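[audit] Reproducing an earlier prediction to check determinism. Same input, same settings, fresh worker. If the tokens differ from the archived copy the diff job will pick it up downstream; this log only records the rerun itself.
[audit] input (201 residues):
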Amino acid sequence: MITLHDGRSSGNAYKCRLALAQLGMTYNRVVYDIAKNETRTPAFLSKTPNGKIPALELEDGRVLAESNAILCYLADGTTLLPEDGWLRALVMQWLFWEQYSHEPNIATVRYWITYGIPLNDEMRAALEPKRARGRDALALMDRHLADRAYVVGDTYTIADIALYAYTHVAPEGGFDLTPYLAVTAWLARVADQPGYIPITA
């Protein structure tokens, strides 16, 4: 059986749990507390040198890191990842954008706040610019979703899962989702998908 090396409040780890649940896959779950540096132990680092969760360990011992790479692996051959080459490329486009323009701003601010991270001068200086870039990301999503039900094509894909993970908890980082009507409607559609589980599951 596969094993998901996981963290309870991590949106990146939640992406993987959500995909596994919606695909009806069984798996072992090992939960780590990053605040206690549990992903920095020699045992964990021997599995994945980057020392981060999530990590997906296959039955044969191979380990795959990076949440969106894990999503692609899990979704291959399913409806969550289109067969059509163009649509598949669009899914990848949004996965890359999520990690470059969305997650570094929305997720980082949420992490600082929810974990009560003491902010040094550099972090304090970065806080409002990150919030501004986070709002820009939400606005871009809102425009994109204004005339479509899902992020790519007309069906639910791992692009939706990837973007949902940190968008739906953005208020925990001080982001007000009220102005983003298309985003909030899309969040409701994602939460209504079969097999949906909350981030707290």
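[audit] rerun output stored. Observation attached for the diff report: Residues 4 and 56 are 5 Å apart (CA to CA).
[audit] end
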